[in-house]
Amino acid sequence: MENVLYPLEFDLIFREKIWGGQKIKNKLGIDIGSLKNCGELWSLSGYPEEQSIISNGFLQSNLLNEVLEIYMDDLVGGDIYDKFGNIFPILVKILDADDWLSIQVHPDDALAHKRGLAGGKTELWYILDAEKDAKLISGFSEKINEAVYLRKIEEKKLSEILNFESVAKEDVFFMPSGRVHSLGPGVLLAEIQQTSDTTYRIYDWDRVDKKGETRKLHLKEAMEAIDFQVYDNYKIDYSQEQNKTCEIVDTPFFTTNILNLTKAIKKDYSELDSFVILLGVEGVFTYEDKNNNKGKITAGKSLLIPASLSQVSIYPQNSCKIIEIYMMPVK
Fold it and tell me: Phi-psi bin for 77: left (phi > 0), alpha (psi -120 to 50), beta?
């Protein structure tokens, strides 16, 4: 039994950002140490330069991708391992914006591969907390062409053609690769994304750092990545029925569901050929697998259930909300 895979917990990774704040500490109750502008908490990461370290069981202190290299499809599923190899394909973060993030865009897989990058970046934002009048940017507000876009960049009036969305707790926004976007001040969110840190920064609000320097822009690289289409709805509509699995989005990059629990449930993943991530977004839950492996997950932490583990029981402490993430890759 000693070498059988079990639900994996992880140490948290924190990143100081020029736009970050204190909500990860004040709203989620997580110790961020001495960080003044903690913009990101990496809850689960196989990103090679910033990997999660396992914090429980006999695999404690091992890096996620090291364990993936040993257990392969038992950890992530056969098709997923065939496609992604020894890089865990999903990155889970918590973002705290105390100021506007840069206006940015991410390439899709095809463009990333053409440029010698590991992969593109599609992401989903689940709002954990939002101050009154908080906003984000998702896509364009009107149909434009490249010439109009470049003129607005030149005039520093890009925001005039961008789509601003008001933000409230539990809102969800899907940000496919190619969509110009930014996050405004007063928002705390969970981000589920492809494992990639490729960001093309288009505009950074003329912001300077402590040395009086601006951050690098990537206008040329971004041009080929941008989707100039205008869409009817930028917000995801989904249901939240208690004690049931409710789908948020189902994409080739990841499937995400919401679990709004007030009582214990047993999840059966035997038909999935995929790992499952359970990200705590509100409250506390404990878990137990068929081999009596147990633990507790608080908001901001992720539990990784290996593909070889078919069942797990989840017990909310009073009530909790969990984002459930897995993959059904297109072959």
Answer: left
